[in-house]
Amino acid sequence: MADAQQINDFLVDAFGRINKIEERAMTTGLGSAISITEIHIIEKIGLSEPARMSEIAHMLGVTLATMTVACDKLEGKGLVRRARSRSDRRVVQVTLTPRGRAVYEYHRAFHERMISSILDTLSPEQSTVLAQSLEKLQDFFLREEAAAEGENNG
Length: 154
Hints:
Blueprint: H1 2-30, H2 36-48, E1 51-52, H3 53-60, H4 64-76, E2 80-84, E3 92-96, H5 98-119, H6 124-153
Antiparallel strand pairs: 1-3, 2-3
């Protein structure tokens, strides 16, 4: 039971710290305030731009209305640009501005440093065990998410 408590304490602490450190690093590196939510929206856009706003909203598990409000703020900060699709005027596509691209790259580099700091200290066997364990944790999160969506839809 002590192991279970230690793992639980670690996960709760780590998730909170990652978000705080990530947000602080981004704000410090960019010279302006940017929230963890905004960082993750920029990340999703950067991975698939030009991206449909509806697809980004779906990936993040938020409504299109929530995504619209978030993009209003990001556009105001000069980080994203929105445009209607020429082939389907109902579709709004979002892309990163050069400043948004810089945020995306800074965030990506932060994650690379974080992962390297872990993997550089582990043997290949330990890395494999860690990856397998985290995959099991992700499976748990996916099951919980699906169950919550099922409760909300029915």
